[in-house]
Fold this sequence. Notes:
By secondary structure, this protein is α+β, with helices and mostly antiparallel strands. The chain is 21% helix and 22% strand. The protein contains 11 helices and 21 strands. The chain has a 4-stranded mixed β-sheet with strand order 16-17-21-20. The protein has a 3-stranded mixed β-sheet with strand order 4-15-13. A hairpin with a 5-residue loop joins strand 8 and strand 9. The protein is flat, with a radius of gyration of 40 Å. The protein starts with 7 loop residues before the first helix and ends with a helix.
Amino acid sequence: MPFTVASTRATTVLRNQLKVHFTPCPYSVCASSRFSSTSKTRANPARPTVSPKPHSERKRSNSLPLYFQSRRSFHSSLLSLNGRSDPYGTLGISKNASDKEIKKAYYALAKKYHPDVNTEDGAEKKFHDIQDAYEILSNAEKKSQFDSFGPGAFGGADATGGGPGDAGGGPFNPFSNFSGFAGFGGGQAFDMEDLFSAFTGGSARGRGRRSRDTVQEFKGDDIEVLVSVSFMDAAKGISKDVSYNPLVACHTCSGTGLKTGHKRATCPKCRGTGTQVHMTDGGFAIGTTCNTCGGTGVFVDPKSACSTCHGEGILKTRRTTTVDIPPGIEDGMRLRVSGEGDAPPIQSDKNVRIHRGDLYVRVKVEPHAEFTRKGPHVFYTAEVPMTTAALGGKVRIPTLSGEADLTVPPATQSGMTVTMTGRGMPMLQRNQNGDMKVTFKVNTLRPTNAEQTRLLEMLADAFNDRSARRTQTNRDK
């Protein structure tokens, strides 16, 4: 399809941004326009400014700034075969070179002859020859064609394979799917349609600004607060009041940021597109969200701004929310309260949907004096007398649900563990509890009078314990 710019405004904006000049193409093969450019955004004193010349006086090496020179050409008759006539020789490699060797040679030469680092005469031309050579050898199909037919394989409609309908663009539409603009290293290409769209807010055919029928959705930031609970509250569950300071829609203007009866104005920075285009040193066109309007294409004029929120549409306020902490919550877990976070810093509008972020409540479980836990299981250490440990018996111990009797098996040793099934923490989202594991610690008896000492010595004699110390009285007996 022939390239046309249907909107005078689109053409004016594009020329103002890039100083674009359209001149008639003398070649019969192209019924469209010849595109040349001088960028205002790339100010490099080491490189001369390119200005339009008659077509017969321009050469491929200096007709466009570096970031608009392409390995693909608009006209097949303008193709340079310097890098294509002997790509192997241009890169200084053999025909048996591997893909890794080809890439290594290309990067080394491209870095050496890049016009930004090499200002010698002929460096820029050499750089383009290197790019041309690498374009062939890095593409398996083109490499095979060159190996089979030599330079003649690229002397047809488009030396880069860009005939009508191909990626190189047809001769009747030089911007149709044009993907040849690439920076240092032959990186990712982009479509000229996107460039027009970024500058004019629509397609390359001149749609004025982004459609007001498009609904945009924005979500605010999440908020996290810390809540401390006791060990027993974590076991049983509890409701906690959480206070925090979220951003919410202004109550005066209902989030519009405007005074009553006022409207938004078109953003002067992006001209209503919501996008800003930047040219990098490597020659890439990068579109970013406009930082003035936040991508909406409109903004609140200070004269029309709400006096309460000053045009922001949001205010910071103090809120208190009740959060139910479920039984069995573990230390460090987070609870989410949907839609209770910050509102986005975007003014509300009929075509803008605003969603608040979420509130996250991080729970800190305080340690307990007697219990510890690991997952749903609770651990407790029970101290028992030596006689109870030896003879067996029962001890009364605390649990999460109150005190309970625990049977001590005969001959219990320190470090032995018994399990009380179902006496642990509730399991989240499961109708069951963990276990309580009790570890015994046997306390040695301490005699406090002569009678207790005598009885213990008799016990030692009964168990034939010859290592136990005896008093003089018992030793004499």
